[in-house]
Amino acid sequence: MCSFKCTIFPYIFLYLFLKNNNKKMEINKIIKLKINENLEEIEKLLTIWRYSVIQKRKGINIEDINIPTTYKVSLKNFDDFNIPMFHPIVFNTGFSIDFDNNEVKLTSLKRYRRFSLRIFEEDMKYLRKEVNDGAKITMITIIPPSYKRGKHGRREVVRNKHWTLNITLRKSIELLTVEKFKKLQKVAILGIDLNSRHGVGYAVWTWNRSNGLIKDEEMGFIKQKIKPHFFQEKVLRKLQRNHKNSVKNNELFQRINKRIQRQNKDWVKKVANEIINIALQSIEKYNADIAMITFEDLSGFKANNRWLRKITKRIFEKALWSYPTKILAYKPIKNQRNIEQILIDAYETSKKCSKCGNYVEFISNNEVYCKHCNRHKNRHLNSADNIARKAILDLCYFIDTF
Questions:
Q1: Rounded to an integer, what distance in angstroms lies between the CA atom of residue 320 and that of residue 318?
Q2: Domain locations in the chain?
């Protein structure tokens, strides 16, 4: 029986590693799997690590201890009393992937021996597809159920109910430069107005760069959060008022909070995939060279918008990883040192009419009226139009500047 479970869409961690005289970028993508078998072998590796930490804290020379060389190298990077007892076990070279038998083989404590961990067949197909697309498996990390996260001196311990296997993939992609962007004839722009309660509004515009013609093509809504979600949030707020600082110890609060977290993750995944699909369809529908996805800059807003910000991050990372030549989620680079996501200033995107630019009147929570052009429109679709228009002006200024 298979003992792994892959996340629906893996977490992606980006870092800039731009080579000299080359407009390329290396991206790391981490696939998270749950481990439920061969735990005895993994526990042995962690036991040896704990033993090594104790010996180091006692002041014993690491070179005199009979432990794996990888542990000796890791221990030298820590001070005596800042060494984490629960530490991820990293395999940079001591691993192999068997695609035919759906297994990951890791180095055991015994010499010339490896123990195998089975993976779901569908997850192995996904991994194989990424490898065939140019990704390389660079590292495998086994994370214990409890370990210190971030700076180890903080004593911030993450506790899970299972071991986690992280497979790190690395891919080199070619970035779109300003010179290449100027050669594009037609661009499809998606303005996205993020809203969890009334649905995510989007507006598709086309920008013909040869004659400067800008045209709004279509607009619509993407699915909103399920209605029971908002009832659960009301219950959480009521529990917080009643229990205050001790609410985290309440069993009902923990159960509902975990359920909301699962629903939010599923909603983020569905919305991100839907936006990516709309961008790909707009390229074919309007015969565009590339699609550009733009969002509002929510960095200065309250923490309750964190799930909306996760959508922007997820689409930015997925577009870079899977569709670097079709979907533009970043500004064309001028040099090799920086890359910025396309984020538009959210100031007055809902207050001004997307047709004439004058201020609108709010008839209801979801509808606005412009007395200058006699136009009724949904406020979220009006905001999506303004975001797309602002994105074009912002990108024009960026291109002309450099």
A1: 5
A2: 12-174, 178-401
